[in-house]
Structure formats: C-alpha cells, structure tokens
Design goal:
The chain has 253 residues and is mainly alpha-helical. It has 10 helices and no strands.
Length: 253
C-alpha cells in the first residue's frame, strides 16, 4: 500500500510543489506589506491581514493541483489497465491518501511560513492603544503566536483535505472537468451566501477556516464543527446521487 501511495504521490508532486511555493511566496510578501496600512495590537495580526483573502479561495488551491489527475485517468481509461493489477477500491484509496497529503501540504506550509514571516521578519508591532482586542483565543494569540498559527494552520489543512475530497468524489463520477475543479469552490460560495442570508454566519465553513471573520463572541465549538459536518454530508449525498441514482461508473470503457 505504501508503495502504491508513493507512486501516486509522484504523479502530483510537481503541481503540489509549484502551488505550495507560489502560495508561500505570495502569503509571506503580503504578510510583510499589507499590515502597514492597519493599526495592530499584536505581531501575528499582520499574518491575518496578509492571508485573509485566501480564506475564500482555498478550495481552488487544494482541488486544481490534484483532482485533474483522476479526471484524466478516467478519461483515458487508465483505470481499466489498473484493474487486473490492483483492485480499484485499493487504488482509489491510495490515490486519495496521496491527494490528502498534497492538500495538507498546500495549506499548512504557506500559512506556517507566512506566520513566521509576520512574527520574525516584520519589525515588532507598536500597539496604537493598550487593552485587549477581543480576539478569539487571545491568550495564545498574543503569548504564543507561532503555536496559535501552527494549530490553526493544521486545522485549515484538515479542512483542505475535506474540500479536496469533494473534488475527488466529483472526479470519480463526473465527466466535466470544469464542474470537478470549480464545484467545491462554488459550493463554498453558495453555502456562505445562504447561511449569511439566514443570519447563521457563525456556522459557515469559512468561519471554521477563519474564525476571525465574525465577532469572537459569536464563535463556539459548533462554529468549528458545523461547516465541516455539512460539507461531509453534501459529499456523501453527491456520491450517493451519482453512484446509486444516476448509476455513473467510476471505471468506464
């Protein structure tokens, strides 16, 4: 199994590397520049300012570099040649594992390096006022910023894996690459819009990804769980719809 995972990792290594490097450079630069137009209390706030826009576009970052591979393998009937050697279920499990590792790296490494840049590269922040900012987990945010950034980045990496799984399921059943690559992003936009209209902002997936996008007093444990659970439910329904009702086959030909 490990050999199979390694083989699948080699297929996506270059796209993952390029995406990670590009995101890391952009996030580090923005974390070292954008904050200059803001009044800050803590060093790590420069990291939040510089990476804020990626909370919206991260579904594209974890789907584009990965899920195209499965789409083209199905399109070219590569899975037909895999079947006599490896059970398709085992092959897809290994492929998903490699994709999950890639998605985790794409999220965690750039966010982690940007946090280091914000704390150690930028000059120390001179607070414009004294007192607390009302930031979520403010104690850890102020006293152990890298630990805070590391834990949050890993959590975001897990959310990236879930979002990639949505693209993976679409790639298993759909024949339209546009739907596969943009479907998870469109879901995040639609979910964000609907829950905002219903005044349930604290339960959005983007809130679980970036809890600073709402008032810290509204954030609870459920704020971190609701969005991912809803997404997992949608992924299950999608797989059920395409596999059981539309009878779309993973292996065609």
């Amino acid at each position: 199994m490990l050999h199979l995972i390694g083989t699948e990792w080699k297929k996506i290594f270059l796209p993952v590397l390029l995406t990670t490097v590009i995101l890391a450079v952009v996030m580090c630069v923005l974390s070292c520049t954008l904050y200059q137009n803001y009044s800050l209390l803590y060093d790590l706030e420069a990291w939040e300012v510089g990476t804020e826009m990626f909370s919206l576009f991260y579904p594209l970052s974890v789907v584009f570099p990965l899920c195209w591979n499965l789409y083209y393998e199905r399109k070219n009937n590569f899975l037909l040649y895999v079947m006599p050697r490896v059970p398709v279920r085992r092959y897809l499990t290994a492929k998903w594992t490699a994709y999950a590792l890639g998605a985790f790296v794409i999220i965690v490494v750039p966010y982690g390096l940007a946090a280091v840049s914000a704390v150690y590269v930028n000059p120390p922040v001179v607070p414009f006022s004294s007192g607390l900012s009302g930031h979520i987990f403010e104690g850890a945010f102020a006293q152990t910023p890298l630990l805070y950034a590391g834990v949050l980045s890993c959590w975001r990496g897990l959310l990236g894996i879930i979002m990639m799984t949505f693209g993976f399921v679409l790639a298993m059943y759909c024949k339209n690459i546009f739907v596969i690559l943009t479907g998870p992003f469109m879901y995040s936009i639609l979910e964000n819009f609907i829950l905002s209209i219903l005044r349930l902002e604290k339960f959005r997936l983007v809130t679980a990804f970036d809890p600073t996008c709402v008032d810290s007093r509204a954030v609870s444990v459920l704020s971190f769980a609701a969005g991912p659970v809803l997404l997992l439910f949608v992924i299950s329904l999608t797989a059920l719809f395409f596999g059981k009702f539309k009878k779309n086959a993973v292996v065609t030909g």
